[in-house]
Structure formats: structure tokens, C-alpha cells
């Protein structure tokens, strides 16, 4: 406010504004005035600048005008979103009832503070709006995450910043609140803000006080001990959860009734996927464009409801490690696939189902309008039918869903009876409540409609009763309705007539009945609107009372939607149910990359086998020219394992998946919030992280380790990494290692658990044809120059490169490499769980081949139906089998 204006000279409204502003100095104040939100002084200047709105002036005192900006009430959410996305906090100020207030005065108070993590404007239905709270201590980091639009609320604890980074990437929060210790712990906060547009706020230390945090949680969940809500084992997580709840109470100013449960989870309950693996495998968005299209979620998500979409996303982000839970999900998918008619019927019923979780938050915030209620009713209408179809399934998971699914028919009936079919959006204009639902409303409506008729009837009745032939009911603005009796009939006026006015030749009267009618007719409109509003609020509150039942039903529907979607996709894309084992064997026959196969026209994707175990087939070194398909092959293996552990069918002819505890990928350069070093440094950091954190039950995808530095350094590092993976701690970590260092294929003979594979190409003169088929053995050439030619590098350069490569080829080096002795400490085969001999022989794809097998396969080839590329593949495979056999 300009200094020359004194507060005393401001209008009462402006004084109120300035008072409120003092308390909410860090917020832009949106002040509700009728159908507009207005901002004044500095706030108006910021809003006008940031949102490119016209700045005007408003009278604010004696001859003074305050800079002013305004946005219409109905469009406020968009403006709010734009402001909070730019990092501003907005306090919404609205009129509140205050009986103590003198007549004519209006009181406005802050009813909600909107921040990026508490914005109710839904921007992407299938994505959560997470707010994350971090309670940092030197030994443990407490993390709590909540979504005000759905009521989801979690907490966990991690040991270090790397794991915090992984959780951050999993939830992608819009806002972080933290204690001050976090600001100085070394985490790269600037990057969070600049690159990921996450706003970070440090809250006052008292918010993180353990005792207050515990108290607020106990109060909110109405329990006496933390055990009552299952979070007693997470002391630092509890602090984060309590501080988060306090922040929500302070900003949202509602009872947060939709936060019914808090879900503590151990990160070890899920497969550990670090942030770079999540990105590299393109689970929910593509690496470069950050689009859903082209990600695994894009292929799998055929969900019908927003709740289902969100659940599927979180399932992919958190694959399971517990075999039983995976089997349960797979059972549900299989059961639905076994009865595709019922499944498709369920999907039809799911189609109109509204986002019940987000509806509940609207109910809690009292922003749900009559149209939301009608959408809600339409959703509930589907529930009995869904329950009936579900009864035809007997598996544990689907029956469980059926049990949790409350058909909520009481709420359906309430809305059906009370709310008009096509109601207005606004709850202040009336026209929402159905005829017949409430007597007073019906009466007021007919008063509005039939008032004239009632007056005519009363006039007629009284004319007969009094015998006054010219008795008339008339109206004027001062006296309202009255009977007019001319002087000649004065002595016939009955006793119950009350005189209102005397004129020269007539008298005007009223009666109790006429007064009643007058009140009803004249106030009908206002009363009706007020009554409808009250009634609607009551109906909304009674929906709010059922929050627990509705939330349980919403969760059940989300699960059902996910299973139905996975079942449909399995059928359409010819996926199979994976077998799961805890013996560490990954045996995939004719596996395909779920996303690449969708991108390639027709059936052109070439399927490949994978066999890995904890002993002889632990490490696969994969060579092959650029563009051959190495990365695709490795990622497809990781994705198939991940899909199986999500409870999803997989793109393969058959798959037996040994459950892994973690998947690590090292593919290309990627960002790491916690580091911030050069590309090679990032690469080495990731390698260090993998070697430190992988266990013998992990799956490692290592693509061209060491390529970021000089050839010899890179080769040596790659070599040493493979040796390390073979040592005692990691022995058994199944590893796919793609490399252009052909020298690494020397390791096959030197280490018992290393096997060479390559992706076949065919030389045709100077050119190469990619066969995309993985075969046993190392590639004998790199074909880099041929690929460069294919890419259109000028002939002159290609020819010169050929000359140089001739001169560089140095037999000496190859000899030296052959002479390196491996340094693998403690290489002892890990004690294997007994593997059924029969099973192993079926699984061991690359085990010794007999001549007869090759002949048999040749006989089985249907030459007439084979595409040329497939024929080449078959030929190549058979030839290689023989070569390997004769070499062996
Ligand atoms: N099995 C397959 N069937 C059909 N097409 C494939 C297959 N595998 C890969 N491709 C195609 O080949 C392209 C290159 O594959 P990919 O990136 O995996 O090669 P790469 O060997 O890792 O190459 P580089 O060494 O240069 O990184 C893919 O984008 C895909 O279109």
C-alpha cells in the first residue's frame, strides 16, 4: 500500500483487506466480492503482471484509488493454477457468517490457502497431485506424501539421499515441505526447483516437533496410540506425516474428512527401482519427450476410470516382491480373461463411473455441486450390475473386490429422489431439488407459480362470505396485497378484516390469510433459493458422512478396472501368464518388447529368448553392431520381469520369472538430482550405486559401461565390473551386459558364469542386414563403419575410416587381452536351491545342441509361409547352433 494513504482513511472493506494481509503476508489475497475475486495494491500488481490482466483502480478511501485486478468467480481455478505453478501462494478470502457483526457489515476470512501441492484443480485425471513432506535427520529420513484431491496418504523412512531421490522420482510431488535440516543436507534443491518445477518450503521448526506431530495424528484419526494407525515403527516418518497434516490443516481449513487412513509402507515391500531405472525403462513416460505415449503405461492402460488409471500407474511404479501377492493379481487377470464376455460387460459398466475419490474431496471441501451429484448417482447406478457380474467369479482377488464393493444404493436413492436430472452448476440459484422431495419447497414453488390463482380464489371466497359484490384484492408497493371495499359496502366488512388505509370513497383491509399468502408469494423466490441451498448442503453432508464406504468402493473399483484392462491387453497383444519361481531362473521364450512391438508396423518385431540363472548363466555379454537391437533386447527382458512382478501377463510365448528384488539399469547418460557431475561421472556414480546396492537376487541391465572415457580405460572398467559382479557378494545377480568392446567376449572361457551372445546381422557385400535375433557367441566384428554408411555418412569419410581401421587393428592387443587372467575372488557357485532336472533341461535354451535337433528344426520350417527376414533368421540361428557345437 502506498505510504501516503493512511489506514484510517481506507473504506471498511479495504481496512479488512489490509488486516488480513498482515497475517498472510506471503500470500496473494483473492478477495471475493460478488461474482468476482479481486486483488488490491501489490497483489493486484503481481497478478496483473503474471497473468497479463488489466490493472484498474478501486475507491479505497477519501479520494484515493487502490490498484485493482479481478478474475471472475467461475474461472478462478485456472487463474489460481497459473499463479501457483509460478510458485505463488494464494489465500482465498470469502464472506463468512458472523452473528455478532452489526447489520450491513460483511466479514471476509481466509477460507483456504492454495499452494502447488494443495491445488484442487485437476490437471491430469490419471495422475496424483502429491505434496511431500521430508523430515530429515542424520540417520533417517522420514517421508510422507498426500494428495488432497483423493485423500491418499502415505509414509515411509529411508536411510540416505539416494533413496530419497528414488522416492521423489516415484511420486513426482508438486511441492515439498521440509524441516530446516533438509536445506543444508547437501541435496541439490536448486535442481528440484529449476528443472522439475517442484516448489520447496522449509516450515518453522515447531511444525516438526515430535510431540505435536504425534498429537495431531492421534487427534485426526481419533486413536489413542500410533499403534492404532499402524505407524508406531516409523518414528521419523511419523514426524513427516504429522507435519504434513498440520500444514494441510493450516492451509486447507477443512476437517480433511477424506483422509481416512494413513498407509505406512516399507520400501522393501516393493521391488527397488532407482530413479534412473524408472526413467530408462520408460515406465510411465518416455525418456526424451516425457510423454505417456511410448511408455509401458501407454501400452497397458486401457482403464475406464481415472481411479483405475492412477492405480495402474502406481502399480507399475512399485512392482511387488511377494510371490503370493503377484499370483493373486495374475489369478484375477486370468480369471477375467477366462470369461471375456463378463469382463467386457464389467468394462461397459465402468465406463460412466465418475472419479469417486476426487468427488469425495469435493464433498469434503464443500465444492461438490448438483451436477457432481448426478454424475455420482450415475456411477452408483452401475454398482449393483457390477456386483452381480462379479459374483460369477470365484477367485480370491475378484471375490475380495466384490466384498469390498458396497453398492451404495442408499446414497443412490437419496440423490435420485432429491436432485433434478439436469441441475444448474451453481448451488445459489435454486432449481436443484426435485418436486416431491420436500413439502415446503413444493409449497414455495407453487406459490411462485400459482400465486395469482390463490389470490383469485381467496377473493371469490370472501366475496361470497361477506356478500360484498365488488370486493377486490389489489396490490401496491407500499401496502402489498389488500382487500378494497367501497364505502357503500363498509358496514358489511367482517370482524376479522384489519384496516390498513382509508381513502375518500373506499377502505383497504388485510386478513391473516391474505397476509400469509402475501408472505408466501412475495418471498417465495428468495425463500426457495435459500431453502434449496440448505437442503443441497445437507444432502452433500450426508454423502460426506459415508466417506469410508465410498472410499472402500472406489478402491475396489480401481482394482477391478486395472485387472480388466490388463486382461484385455493380454488378450489383444497375445501376452501369456508368467510362471513365477524363487529359484532365480529367468527363462523367457520368444519374448518381445511390449512398447517397441506396438510401434513397429505389422508383426515385424522379432521375438527373442532369454535365459539367466544364478550359476552358469549369470552374466550375458551381448555384442552386436549399433542399431542391432541390443538395448531393445535388454530392456525387454527387464520389462517382462517387471510386468510379471506387477501381476501382469507378459509379451512372450512362455515365461518363467525368478523374482528379483531390484532392477538396476545403466543405459546412456541420465540426470541424477543428488549428483550433478559430468556425463562420465554420472555414469560411474550409477555404476558405483549398482555395485553397492545390487544383491544376488537383482537383475542388472548394463549398456555399454565405460563408453564415456578412453577405449582402454573404458574396457578395463567394464572388465573389472564384470569380475566384480562375479564375486561372492553379487554372485547370482543376473546381468545383461551390452558392449562394443569385443575383447570382453574373452571372459566367457575365463569365468564359469559368463556367456557370450550377439545379435545377428547379415553381411551383404559392403552392407549389413539387421536380423534382430539373439544367438549364442560373440560378434566377430563391430560393423560400426557399415552402420555409419547406412546412416548416410559421406562415402569419402567411410572409405577413409576403413583405411584407418585397417592400420589400427593390432593383433598385439588381442593377444594381451587373451593373456589377462581373471581376478575373481571367491568365485564359488552360490548354493543353489535344487532345480528340478526336467525343469532345467526345458529351461536351458542355450545348453548343448545336438545335430538331430538342428535337422529336426530345419525339417519343421514352413518355407512357403516364412517372410524372407524370418527365413534368414532361422538360417542364421541354425547355422550358429552348428558352429557353436563344432567349436565346442
Ligand atoms: N527384436 C526387434 N525386432 C524388430 N525391430 C527391432 C528389434 N530390436 C530392435 N529393433 C529396432 O532396432 C532399433 C535399434 O535398436 P537398439 O537401440 O536396441 O539397438 P542397439 O543395438 O542398442 O544400438 P546401439 O548400440 O547403437 O545403442 C530399435 O529402435 C527398433 O526399432
Automatic annotation (TrEMBL):
The UniProt record lists the keyword Protease: no
Pfam families from the UniProt entry: MutS_I, MutS_II, MutS_III, MutS_IV, MutS_V
CC annotations in GO: cytosol
Residues engaged in binding ATP: 624-631
Keywords: ATP-binding, Coiled coil, DNA damage, DNA repair, DNA-binding, Nucleotide-binding
PROSITE patterns noted in UniProt: DNA_MISMATCH_REPAIR_2
Residue ranges of domain DNA mismatch repair proteins mutS family in the record: 698-714
Coiled coil: 401-464
InterPro entries: DNA_mismatch_repair_MutS (IPR005748), DNA_mismatch_repair_MutS-lik_N (IPR007695), DNA_mismatch_repair_MutS/MSH (IPR017261), DNA_mismatch_repair_MutS_C (IPR000432), DNA_mismatch_repair_MutS_clamp (IPR007861), DNA_mismatch_repair_MutS_core (IPR007696), DNA_mismatch_repair_MutS_N (IPR016151), DNA_mismatch_repair_MutS_sf (IPR036187)
Keyword Ubl conjugation: no
Molecular function GO terms recorded: ATP binding; ATP-dependent DNA damage sensor activity; damaged DNA binding; mismatched DNA binding
Record-level GO BP terms: mismatch repair
Family stated for the protein in its record: Belongs to the DNA mismatch repair MutS family.
NCBIfam families, sorted: mutS1, PRK05399.1
Matching HAMAP family: MutS (MF_00096)
Role played: This protein is involved in the repair of mismatches in DNA. It is possible that it carries out the mismatch recognition step. This protein has a weak ATPase activity.
Name of the protein in question: DNA mismatch repair protein MutS
Organism: Acetatifactor muris
Organism ancestry: Bacteria, Bacillati, Bacillota, Clostridia, Lachnospirales
